[in-house]
């Protein structure tokens, strides 16, 4: 029997990308507005929202094992909602395979959760995977309305969806077409986040640099215009954005990297592969050369920029020689950090049925070689930053007593020991660089 009482406590568990983390926060705020409170750490919640990711196989499988783990000794379960991209892509399948799930809600429909909860506690199993033209944002409660504090480094989704249709990717199907949130709504949300304590805002979008809007004077602006305007908020110290597509990279955004001090010297620009034939088969619509050209320009505008990317190894048909092109590109760029993945066939995507699926052992060998090269460059980048003085935004306590963790402007994790608090912006000298992090010593407690 499903629970019949309106839940009093909730837990939202987000998997996958930062956009899911953002959606998870907004769902939590929505539930709080309904009078449902966050379950204390370790306590069982009446309502569990699994905010899922569908980008690779393992992510989807995890959902089913998580649902299984929610089952109590007496066979009952809390009220379970599956949200996010697995919900969007496999909603019917979830309902069939997991009888304990009462609600399936897609990424564009979660503003309807309160209504769905009422129906679910009335005994119905409800699915909402609509993608309404009117975006959910207008229907959500304003950020931090209930006086809750923001994390010092906050996320703000400015754009959703993707029109690029890379042949391996589910995002255009699960998140829908590219939609930019209106300018005024974003400025308002950013100010609310800053009022609630955010010192850094990361602007999020599947294709964040495709964001476009009309400013207060009716002029059409791009992401660079939005960044310049946000930089005017006095208490906001840092701006970042992710994820970009090489083809939407404008001269204006490149210039902003050289001109806007608050825009951090970090760029995540996925390339996926180094071979032009593979890039074409992936429908990436850029070449290795045009990608490198963008990086060159950004480096010219902001010489200390730290570069990041995404890679897929073992795309169908990728030959040994084509994989070597990926390694060659890595050698050329010298990334500060990267994500790399084995190709995972996603149902419904064109690549899933392409000839030349690469055997698992070849994939493993390639990812190990790629990660060795990326690891080498990441460590070298961290070591090369030793001796630099920079600001660090303190985000949380470290694992060791007295230790704190924050981020450098180049998005390195920086550890140091001193008497500081979460949210402080401190000046440090970087003293030691490793693979994953950099150690530092505090120079001045609070930055000017
Ligand atoms: N298999 C492996 N990696 C994928 N990505 C997206 N789809 C797949 C897939 N089917 C990776 C890409 C993308 C990142 C978010 O996930 O590198 O940039
Ligand atoms: Fe997926 Fe390509 Fe769109 Fe990125 S640009 S979300 S990889 S389809």
Number of strands: 21
Main β sheet profile: 6 strands, parallel
Distance N to C terminus: 59 Å
Flag low-confidence runs.
none
User: What is the CATH topology classification name of the largest domain?
Assistant: pyruvate-formate lyase- activating enzyme
- The number of domains: 3
Give the strand order of the largest sheet, numbering strands 1, 2, ... along the chain.
2-1-3-4-5-6
CATH architectural name of the largest domain? Alpha-Beta Horseshoe
Shape: globular
Summed up, the helix count is 12
Supply the key terms:
S-adenosyl-L-methionine, pyruvate-formate lyase- activating enzyme, 448 residues, 23% strand, alpha/beta, five-stranded mixed barrel, metal-binding, binds iron/sulfur cluster, 4Fe-4S, Rossmann fold, binds 5'-deoxyadenosine
Task: Describe it.
- It is found in: Cytoplasm.
- Belongs to the methylthiotransferase family. MiaB subfamily.
- Its cofactor is [4Fe-4S] cluster.
- Keywords: 4Fe-4S, Cytoplasm, Iron, Iron-sulfur, Metal-binding, S-adenosyl-L-methionine, Transferase, tRNA processing.
- Pfam families: Radical_SAM, TRAM, UPF0004.
- With 448 residues, the protein is of the alpha/beta class.
- It has 3 domains: 9-128, Methylthiotransferase, N-terminal domain (Rossmann fold, 3-Layer(aba) Sandwich), CATH 3.40.50; 143-384, tm_1862 like domain (pyruvate-formate lyase- activating enzyme, Alpha-Beta Horseshoe); 389-442, Nucleic acid-binding proteins (OB fold (Dihydrolipoamide Acetyltransferase, E2P), Beta Barrel).
- 32% of the residues lie in helices and 23% in strands.
- It has 12 helices and 21 strands.
- The chain has helices at 18-33, 57-69, 84-97, 113-121, 171-174, 183-195, 223-230, 251-259, 276-281, 288-301, 320-333, 360-384; strands at 9-14, 37-38, 47-52, 79-83, 101-105, 126-128, 153-157, 159-160, 179-180, 200-204, 212-214, 220-222, 238-242, 266-268, 306-313, 337-342, 389-397, 403-407, 413-417, 425-433, 437-444.
- It has a 6-stranded parallel β-sheet with strand order 2-1-3-4-5-6, sandwiched between helices. Strands 17-18-19-21-20 form a 5-stranded mixed barrel.
- A hairpin with a 3-residue loop joins β20 and β21.
- It is globular, with a radius of gyration of 22 Å.
- The structure holds 5'-deoxyadenosine and iron/sulfur cluster.
- Iron/sulfur cluster (SF4) binds at residues 162, 164-166, 169, 171-172, 206-207, 245.
